[in-house]
Amino acid sequence: MTTSAYKRTILITGATDGIGKQTALDLAAHPDNFVIIHGRTEEKCIATKEWIGKENGNSSNIDYVAGDFAVLKEVAIMAEEVERRFPELNVLLCNAGVLYPRRLETKDGMESTFQVNYLSHYLLCNLLLPVLSHNRSNVIVVGSVLHTWPSLDWADVMAEKEYEKYLQYSRSKLMCHLMAFALHRRMNIARQHVNVNIIELGKEKEPNNNGKLRTTSALSSSMSTLSICRQAGNLAQLIEGPCLEKISGKYLDPSGKQMRSGSDATDERLQERLWSYSKELCHDYM
């Protein structure tokens, strides 16, 4: 399939629910955009495509790819499909994420939050670099202010000794920040035309004195429709605007203003340690 008639060919991970779904709707409403929906199953992708087509009155600029981020092999197959079917891809929005109340393991034998929120995005970004580099692209990683809360526990990355859902979620977001900065540096050194930035969507609260997180706007299962629409609208405006064309390696608020990252996130030694660790975990697919 050729999408050369469009200014932007956009892949959104986790686009069948929540903010990802609403962002896909908003972006698909613009005639300059071709939107690729990603979801865990083909059934969910088809349902989302039909819903967007009905809402916008047009589905000609929407397609989908399915792949379960809890299975690295499916991520690799999906990346190959994207590269083959959508060679004009020039925007990758890393949005997919989970928050599990109890510890689960994937088919790859890894903790689910770690793999779905972070490692599968690491693998996908690396596998799509050839096409992204060719097309002068933007990689946008959905971040979280919660990345400043924890440090990584290298003795328990998979949370086998201790699992607390908000702690593991926050650590997965710290890993996403570390990955984005490391990827930016690699693209800069190699003089590749790929901008990599992290976007903060909402105001999540810090842990209370007991080390537990209170209900947060970005994590609450009862997030209002208005909040989802507002955050998705911010994302769509950033993607369609000029801001991301000019900067890379930044942590941005919903308006595109630079924010200060946590000290762990900007630690290059920590970035490289995580990159090497992740590369080893994904070695069968890279």
From TrEMBL:
Keywords: Oxidoreductase. It holds the Pfam family adh_short. Gene3D superfamilies: NAD(P)-binding Rossmann-like Domain. Coiled coil: none annotated. The keyword Acyltransferase does not apply. GO terms for molecular function: oxidoreductase activity. This is Retinol dehydrogenase 14. It comes from Caenorhabditis tropicalis.
